[in-house]
Design a protein that fits this description.
Serine Threonine Protein Phosphatase 5, Tetratricopeptide repeat
């Protein structure tokens, strides 16, 4: 059996080939756009997660929290921080906001006083830091739970930034908390 093509068949062959070419070209272009978009997003995400960017965002939230607290009180502060939790980019920011929620819940006039511990422990579970350990240690000590306070003061000192030039912690801070640790160890024995 021999297939014979006339001119109209060549035209349909050309149309099929051009449709295949257009389809392949479209797939390639869409793939390149997808990969390009992914890399642009990845670069943007990495820029959002630099220590400087995180610190700037946390400081902005903290500054705004001061205004909200001054003008609206502790309960408005919680509402503001709940909104900021939705905008947090990473675990460190979420934990920092929970630390602020814990501190705001522990202020006079707060309806969330009982949640102060919950927020502090949530921050510790999300992103353990010297700040989360310190707030837990202080609250546990105030409550008379010296063993737990001792544990968290030790974690605080262990996690504290060692380069006091670039962090707000100084040698005096470390000495102060080491002194508290020594006192608690003496009291527990």
């Amino acid at each position: 059996m021999v297939l014979k093509f006339n001119k109209s068949d060549k035209s349909s062959q050309y149309q099929i080939k051009s449709k295949i070419f257009i389809g392949l070209f479209s797939v390639i272009v869409l793939s390149l756009l997808g990969f390009g978009g992914y890399f642009v997003y990845k670069a943007w995400f990495n820029l959002q997660n630099t220590p400087e960017a995180i610190s700037t965002r946390i400081n902005t939230v903290y500054d705004k929290l001061g205004e909200v607290s001054k003008n609206g009180g502790a309960n408005d502060s919680q509402e503001y921080l709940d909104g900021e939790l939705k905008n947090a980019v990473n675990k460190e920011e979420v934990a920092q906001i929970y630390i602020m929620k814990s501190a705001a819940a522990d202020t006079p006039g707060s309806a969330d006083k009982a949640k102060s511990f919950e927020y502090a422990y949530k921050a510790e579970s999300i992103y353990p830091s010297y700040k989360s350990a310190l707030i837990i240690a202080n609250m546990e000590k105030a409550k008379g739970n010296n063993e737990t306070a001792l544990k968290y003061y030790k974690l605080c000192v262990e996690r504290a930034p060692k380069d006091s030039e670039t962090h707000e912690w100084s040698r005096a801070d470390l000495n102060y908390y080491n002194k508290i640790i020594a006192e608690l160890e003496k009291d527990i024995k």
